[in-house]
Specification:
It is a single chain. The protein is α+β, with helices and mostly antiparallel strands. It folds into 3 domains: about 290 residues, Pnp Oxidase, Chain A (Roll); about 130 residues, UbiD C-terminal domain-like; about 60 residues, Arc Repressor Mutant, subunit A. Helix content is about 25%, strand content about 20%. The strands form 6 sheets. Strands 5, 6, 7, 8, 9, 10, 11, 14 and 17 form a 9-stranded antiparallel sheet that branches. Strands 19-20-21-23-22 form a 5-stranded mixed sheet, sandwiched between helices. Strands 1-2-3-18 form a 4-stranded mixed sheet. The longest helix has 15 residues.
């Protein structure tokens, strides 16, 4: 795993996941170009600005895996390690983020290449700032909040929803004091993931990030405020949330829902200083996907935790991007009787989870067709769909009915798409092509033709007798017979089986394997009025 944001950019280049664009580009075009790209993009020639812009570095499973130095489905384990074994930050006297310092009247946020994302946004927005704040009682807090640039040294800050920074700012507002914050732009994604995690008040997200990194996050004191900053960040804003209260309208904002939110009433932030690396790179966290994807491991960790406590054996979890990595989970389990329903109830207890689908371990939770197939072939709605009314909601859910003065609640749904306990297993034997683990198409398309193979001459009656003796002991599928008698050739095996059919000695067991008439393996015909499986 790269140790810094700059190291991550190098890793993405080596993996072919970062494309550098040297042609002049209008800053208004950046968001839509990133949206069109299947790679992260770095714009080195943004018209009117001296600083490069990079965007899209965490909006895919593969790039998140590169960032965390592991497979995507192992990121949850790294987060769990950070939660279970946090490592406090390392205080240092300097760092790359301190190489250039601009303060006082020289601060000019308009010199930073802050893009416009949506046509309905209220203006250019700083989206990738890991904001550090502290409280005398609860200590250091880290979170990701948007800053709408309003003046050369003034922004809004989107803390309208209840969160720890909102609590700190509210306390400072009541005391009539500004709240110092450092805004760290261009940090390692472990800080982004930890900053998105809803840690209990008093839990240090920076220590969680240290646990994810395996080493304490390097931090250094700010110059103009009593706050630390992340020493290896690209850019740091030293700032204060002003004690003006939630009185100024700003927005609109693009939300993780992939929809536009409304106006928010937010406080103002005064930027006292900007420090940065020499030749700094501005990171524009792309909305909404770079806001969506890092949430996946967080919700996966929560789902795995509650299912473990429920005693359910989980084999895979997909917190789906279609559900904005907040609302939908597809969970594969090895169920005992009743486990699927228990899994639904446990998973829906995770705060923002709205819809859960439970499947057997043979289903690929990352393949939407496989999951839909499980729902289509294993679900009876009146038996397998669980609906819970009146649960806690995520207020950004646009389907909620909002009544003035009331906190909206939501309905939650679970689908048990596991194989029903009382249904014969042979109904769920998938089509499996013969020799799929042995034959490669390339072996037949790449090499030159070698001529027609000669047919094998075989005594069909003798071969039929051998097959009869074999299936008298063990029922076998036709494909298994062709494998046992491969040397005799497929056509001859088919003829020998045909001879057994003609002699009326051949029968099949309940799963369709060949056996003999009257043997203990032979399937029995259904009685009159009885349905065959």
């Amino acid at each position: 795993m790269a140790a810094s944001f700059r190291g991550l950019l190098d890793d993405l280049r080596k993996a072919g996941e970062l494309v550098e664009i040297g042609k002049p580009v209008d800053i208004r075009y950046i968001a839509t170009l990133v949206d069109q790209s299947d790679k992260a993009l770095m714009f080195t020639n943004v018209i009117g600005y001296d600083m490069p812009v990079v965007s899209g570095i965490t909006n895919s499973r593969n790039r998140l895996a590169i960032a965390m130095g592991c497979k995507f489905d192992e990121i949850e384990g790294k987060l769990r390690a950070g939660l279970d074994r946090p490592i406090e930050p390392k205080m240092v006297n300097s760092g790359p983020a301190r190489e250039v310092l601009i303060e006082g009247d020289d601060v000019d946020l308009y010199k930073l290449p802050v893009p416009l994302f949506s046509v309905l946004d209220g203006g250019p927005m700083i989206t990738a700032g890991v904001i550090l704040s502290k409280d005398p009682e609860h200590g250091l807090n880290a979170g990701i909040y948007r800053l709408l640039v309003k003046e050369k040294n003034l922004t809004g800050i989107d803390i309208v929803t209840p969160n720890n920074l909102h609590k700190f700012a509210q306390a400072a507002y009541k005391a009539g004091k500004p709240l110092p914050i450092s805004v760290n732009i261009g940090t390692h994604p472990s800080e982004l993931i930890a900053g998105c995690y809803k840690a209990p008040l008093g839990t240090s997200e920076i220590a969680i990030s240290g646990g994810m990194r395996g080493d304490g996050v390097p931090m250094t004191p700010c110059k103009t405020i009593d706050m630390p900053c992340i020493a290896d960040a690209e850019i740091v804003l030293e700032a204060e949330i002003l004690p003006t209260g939630w009185t100024k309208p700003e927005g609109r904002f693009g939300e993780f829902t992939r929809l536009m939110g409304g106006l928010h009433w937010n406080p103002h932030v005064r930027v006292k200083a900007v420090s940065m690396r020499r030749n700094a790179v501005y990171y524009a966290l792309h909305m909404p996907w770079e806001n969506i994807w890092p949430s996946g491991p967080i919700y996966e960790a929560a789902v795995r935790r509650v299912l473990k406590e429920a005693g359910v054996q989980v084999t895979a979890v997909n917190i789906t991007p279609g559900g904005c990595c907040h609302w939908h989970a597809v969970i594969a389990i090895r169920p005992l009787a009743g486990d699927a329903k228990n899994a639904i109830l446990a998973a829906l207890s995770v705060a923002d989870m709205k819809h859960v689908t439970i499947v057997d371990h043979d289903i690929d939770v990352f393949d939407a067709v496989d999951v839909e197939w499980a729902v289509a072939t294993r679900v009876q709605a009146d038996r397998d769909v669980v609906i819970i009314s009146g649960a806690r909601s995520k207020p950004l859910d646009p389907s909620l009915v909002i009544e003035h003065g009331k906190v909206p609640v939501t309905a939650k749904m679970g689908i048990d798409a596991t194989i029903p306990d009382n249904v014969p297993r042979e109904r769920y034997h998938r089509i499996s092509y013969a020799y799929s683990n042995k034959v490669r198409l390339a072996d037949y398309t790449e090499a030159a033709a070698t001529g027609k193979a000669a047919a094998v001459s075989v005594d069909i009656a003798a071969l039929a007798a051998k097959i009869e003796a074999l299936i008298a002991e063990t029922p076998l599928y036709f494909a298994q017979l062709t494998e046992r008698f491969e040397a005799e050739g497929f056509n001859n095996v088919a003829r020998a089986v045909g001879q057994l059919h003609k002699s009326e000695r051949l029968w099949q067991d309940a799963e369709g394997r060949f056996c003999l008439v009257g043997s203990r393996f032979a399937a029995q015909p259904p009685k009159p009025g009885q349905k065959a499986h």
